[in-house]
Predict the 3D structure of the following.
Amino acid sequence: MKEKISITAIASLSPLGSTLEETWEAYHNNEHYFSLEERNGSISWVAPLAQSGRSLVDELRLSDSKYKKLDDSVLYAMVASRMAVANSGWQIDSEFGINLGSSRGATKLFEQYHRAYLETGLASTLSSPTTTLGNISSWVSHDLGANGPEISHSITCSTGLHAVLNGVAWINSGMANKFLVGASEAPLTDFTIAQMKALKIYAKAEEVDSASVAEPFDNPQDRFRRSYPCQALFLKKEQNSMILGEAASVACLERGISKNALAIIEGVGYATEILRHNTSISANAVCFQKSMKMALGNLDGEEVDVIVMHAPGTIKGDLSEYNAIQKVFGSKVPFLTTNKWKLGHTFATSGMLNLEMAILMLQYNELISVPYLMNNSDIKEVRKVMVNAVGFGGNAVSLLISMN
């Protein structure tokens, strides 16, 4: 990487909370943040925003008549962006670039408008401008009065970390000094959940009944594990357990090493795989092998203390990423962790929430583990953390971050 980049602020709205303090506190309990809701006549696991975040969104929606017609994904991004910029010390109306993306975009509004069209044969006047992908970055730019470039994109579940890549590229090119990057996702809609179930990767709600039944397990840890509907990073699970969550997360990037940096981006990596089918990834996740090696550069893999994995809670997805890590790091595999067992898969935002988790571990010099895994570590100091994300079709991104 041409020049190190500072992360001077990061903010999020997620099932865990709406501030770094609230989120860090949530990471210190062994509870998951899923609830059961009725969707399309059946019960489904979901991870909605925490009430603190929902209140901020409702307040924003009512603050301006124009905001009442916007999708949740746009409002989530606007709230998170306001918080990130405020925490960074950047001035509103100053010059900085914006790159925010989403996997699904305005899916709630789109479903509503499409349902109305099927019923009436007429499309609403606002159905186009409020459901376009560029809606998120453009409204954030409007809200903040930013004067720099404004970019939108969608690369499914690696969208957020691809926004970081773009910000780094713009800054290293000399075309910008600051970039606001991130993603927003509000996928808890009937059609989106139905799509995930059609792929046969979604956690089955009926399994909850067996979680509380006293069964004779060989290992006491098995009984504990059964209380978690999403079993991300448990490599011996026999069924897929992905659960959708909603969230937005935004970070502020600046050229060089800032005295106010929360963390430093030391390396970035990216790669794709040749598609075998629309959702494919190879057994050893070749894309992740390439992206992690690129992020490492000339650094010895033994210097990486932690990897925050993508680990969506699917059988093949979790195992292929683990295999890739073994290929890259050999016998010196870093401490492995994920947060999807706790807050679900937030699609585009998932990589940004992984980045936030990594920054918190660096800031507090403390590991956050998966409670149902025997993943002990003798790490005394968290110095370098790798963050992974991958989207459909093997679009992988890896970041290597460290303390200032």
Remarks:
- The radius of gyration is 20 Å.
- The first helix runs from residue 20 to 26.
- The chain has two domains: 5-193+242-255, 265-402.
